[in-house]
Amino acid sequence: MELMFWWVIPPALLLAAAALWRALRPQANARRRPVAHADRLTALPEYQAALRRHRRWLAVAALAAASLLVSAVVAAARPVELTTVRPEQRNRDIMLCLDSSGSMSSADSAVVEVFGVLAKEFDGERIGLTIFDSSAVQVFPLTDDYEYVQEQLTLAKAAFDGDPGSAGFLDGTWSGRGSSLIGDGLASCVAGFPPAGAGAARAVSPTGGAGPDAPGQRSRSVVLATDNYLSGDPIFTLEQAGTLARERGVKVYALNPGDFDYGPGPAQPGARLREAADASGGAYYPLDHPDAVADIVRRVQDTEAAALEGAPRAVVSDLPNVPLTVALLSGLVLAGASWRLKP
Question: What is the DSSP string of 286-317?
Fold first, then answer.
């Protein structure tokens, strides 16, 4: 424990010493009158007992006053505890990349539901959402505005569950030709991360806030949920999008409920998606049922749960409890002793 305003103590001691000297100094103008046969009174047992009680209460009052003075001065000097802490800073950027084609509704709904729950526990992580079918739409960029994230994921779940009036959430994903253009979707999701090495890059909150991106210090992951049924001619092939992810340091975690390859060859859709995910440092998860999404997403979340230690920071904690408690008790004792000492 340290005293923040220690310089209060010397003046307080000087004032206390002056007050004590003034109280104990004999009064030159004190008026005394002689009383005849006073020894007969002072010799009485009752007088002796009353005198002893009076002196005891005087001692109690003096100790209480001294304790009150000392504790009040200590409290005024502001006792504090100085500690050094290294706060943990979560350093994950997670982009949800969801194939919004009809066959993915159940799996997409499970993904956004799980992340809606996880967002309540996030502290420093940034999360974004991009949906795609024949074209990609960024629903919201990377942000740590978790209230906004939960609001948007709730709307997304309603849309994937087919709730009445929610279909507009998917507008813009059918602007191109074809369906489940996986390469274009993945490339759009990877482009949602700030460029590595751009010191001035910033991740903007949809509500207006922005925070600096520390290149090389934040893990980047894409949770890609797709049925892997490519239909059409994408701008980016899956391999090109995977290469872009590797170049930008983005790990791809692919969730594929429709893992139905026709043979073990490397040209099979599932094998190609697995290769792209593994090459990025991520993983590939073939799903037998959308209910498995929750366990897989939590596994991804645990894998990416890296944290950075922040810069050392001094924390000042006030500790007024003891001196103020002693002052309160001393004041109560002094009040009781003063009442007993009254004439």
Answer: E-SSGGGHHHHHHHHHHHT--EEE---EEEEE
